[in-house]
Specification:
The chain has about 220 residues and is α+β, with helices and mostly antiparallel strands. It is built from six helices and five strands. It has a five-stranded mixed sheet.
Length: about 220
């Protein structure tokens, strides 16, 4: 009996060396693409987390304002706190009324409380006290006047009932700015004001706030009423 020759059957599971290398290269490219996507997405994720924390801060701030029955307003887009009609100034004046001082003395513990709790503790960097004027007068004179208005508000903030440690914390946070006529309102009375602007950290800002010199608070150097 003559035996039949059996032809070898190609194994369906066998891949050539070239196909194996192609698959490895494709796998490597996939891993690299995923890694690059993760790296590029991280800053976007961190920015979203930071923005969400700032939103939570303003939600809490609004709740605190309402619970303390303060006559102040919040502009989330500009990150500012408007001190209302009570903290307005007469023409060519930086004097505060007694009523305005009382309101500011209530604002000081609010600012400290918002900075002490999360997310303020992580993201609130500085509190700017910005004085404004109307367009009357010269530019340089209004620079001086706007700074004095801001200084009057700072003096009133420190008249609040605070411990020396809280006074120190407030000194650490405050920055006094004279903004002169850079934000004119429709009415001159509205322009003669002081606003509080909140400065928040960026996602790559990890520098500690530079410590202010350890000096006594002292007394206000200008007349405030």
């Amino acid at each position: 009996m003559t035996g039949k020759r059996v032809e070898p059957v190609d194994s369906p599971f066998w891949i050539s060396y070239a196909d194996l290398m192609t698959a490895l290269v494709m796998l490597l490219l996939l891993v690299m693409s995923i890694s690059m996507l993760a790296v590029t997405s991280q800053p976007v994720l961190e920015r979203k987390q930071r923005d969400a924390a700032v939103d939570i801060f303003f939600e809490q701030l609004q709740q605190q304002i309402q619970s303390r029955a303060l006559d102040i307003s919040v502009n989330r887009a500009m990150h500012t706190i408007g001190l209302g009609e009570k903290v307005r100034f007469s023409h060519d004046s930086y004097l505060l009324s007694t009523e305005a001082k009382r309101q500011l003395q209530a604002v000081a513990p609010l600012l400290l409380a918002m900075h002490a709790a999360e997310p303020g503790r992580s993201w609130l960097k500085r509190i700017h006290i910005e004085g404004y004027t109307d367009e009357t007068g010269t530019y340089l004179y209004n620079v001086h006047l706007s700074l004095r208005r801001a200084q009057s508000v700072v003096c009133a903030l420190f008249e609040a009932d605070m411990t020396s440690a809280d006074q120190r914390r407030l000194q650490q946070l405050l920055m006094i700015d004279g903004a002169t006529t850079t934000s004119i309102k429709a009415r001159k009375e509205e322009s003669r004001r002081v606003e509080i602007r909140l400065e928040f950290r960026s996602i790559d800002d990890h520098e500690p706030i530079q410590s202010v010199p350890d000096m006594p608070l002292g007394r206000c150097s200008i007349q405030t009423e």
